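SUBJECT: protein chain
CONTENTS: sequence, C-alpha cells:
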Amino acid sequence: MSAAADALAEYRPALRPRVLLSDALLDGAATVHLIKDTDSGSSFRVGPKEHFLIARMDGERSLREIGEEYAREYGRRLDGARWQQILRMLGTRGLLAGADARTPAGPAAPAGPAAPAGPAAPGGSAAPGGSAAPVTRPAGPAGPAGPARGVLRGSVRLVADADATTARLHRAVGFLLAPGWLVPLLVLVVAMEVVIALHVGELLIDARELFTNPVLLTGAATLLWFSTALHELAHGVVARHHGGTVAEIGLRWRLPVVIMYCTVGNYLYLGSRWQRIHTALAGAVMNLLFLLPFCALWMFAPLDTATHDALGALLLLGSAQAIAMLVPFPPLDGYRIVSQLCGATGLAAATGTYLRLVARRDPAAADYPRRARAAYLGYGLGSVLVLVLILAAVVAAAHHLLTV
C-alpha cells in the first residue's frame, strides 16, 4: 500500500455538528435517508449504503475501520477511488468538519492522502449502489419556507429569533409535558369529547343559532383563531422539548384568512419517530386543551341561555377544528402523523403512483418491497375510508339540522 493510500485509510472524517441525518424513509420503491445542512438549509437524499458510511463519520473512526464495518455488513470493500468520491461529494456540499458550508470546497484533506480533485457533479454517485440527489427542503408541521408579502397572500415573521422565543415558552410551560401533568389533562380531554359526543345533536343546533348572532359569532371566531395560534406554538414547544429547533414564527394570509404559523426546521430529523408524531399531534391536543375551561363553564356555570348555547357551539366547532387537523391528507398534521407511522416521505404522491401501477397491472408494481406495498395500499384504502366517514358525518349533521 502506498503512503498516500495508507494515510487515506487512517483519515478520520467528521461531519459538521449541524449536519442532520434522518431515519430510513420509503421514497416510492426505494429506501432513502435525508441529510440536511442546517446552516445553509439545503438537504439531499442518499441510499442506505451511503447513510451507513456517512453516519459513522464521527471523527473517531478511521476510513479503514468504517470500511471494515461496511465490508461486514455488505460483503464488499470500498477502494480508494470510491472513498475519494464520497469525501468529494461531502466536501463540495460543505458537510465535513473544516469545510465552509456557505462556500463549498473540497473536504479538509487528511495529512498524506491524495486530496480529492474537483467537485462531484450534483446528484452524482456517493457510493456504490446509490446517489446523492438534491431534495426540496423538508418543512416542519406548519409554515412557509420564508417570509413573503403580498396584498392577497403572503407571510411575515413576527419574531426575530423564533428558536429563542420557543425556548422561553418551553421553560414557562414545558412542565406540562411531564406525565404527571399530561396524563390527567388528556383524561380530561377525552372526558370532554365524550360529553360533546353525547350532546352532539343539541350542539349542532347551538352552532346553527350562533351563525345568526353576529356578536357571539365574532367572539367565538376570535377564540377559535386564538386556538389556532396556540396550536402552532404547541408544535414548536413540543419540538423544542424533543431537541428540535424552530425556524420561524409568523403570520400567513390567504385573504380573507389570516393565521399564525410555526416552522420546525428539523422536524424530520428529531430523535425518534414517536418524537415526530408527538410534535405533529401537539397542535390538535392544544386545540382541545384550550376548550377545557369553556367546557367547565358550559357544564357548571349559571349562564343565560344565549351564552350557554354559544359556549356549546364553541365546543363543537373547536372539537371539529382539532379533529379536522388530524385528517390524514396533506398538508394537515394527520398526514404527517400517518407518514411517520408508515416511515415514508412523499406518502400521498408515492401512493398514487403505486396504485396506478397496480391498476394498470404494470410489472413495475412488483418491484416495490413488501413494506412499501403495505404502506401505500394501507394509506390508499384508509384515505377512502376517511372520506366516506367525513361524508357520512356531513350528511348526518345536515339531516339532523333539517329535521329539527
About this structure: Strands lie at 19-21, 25-27, 30-37, 43-46, 133-135, 153-157, 246-254, 257-264. The chain is about 55% helix and 10% strand. Residues 354 and 360 are 10 Å apart (CA to CA).
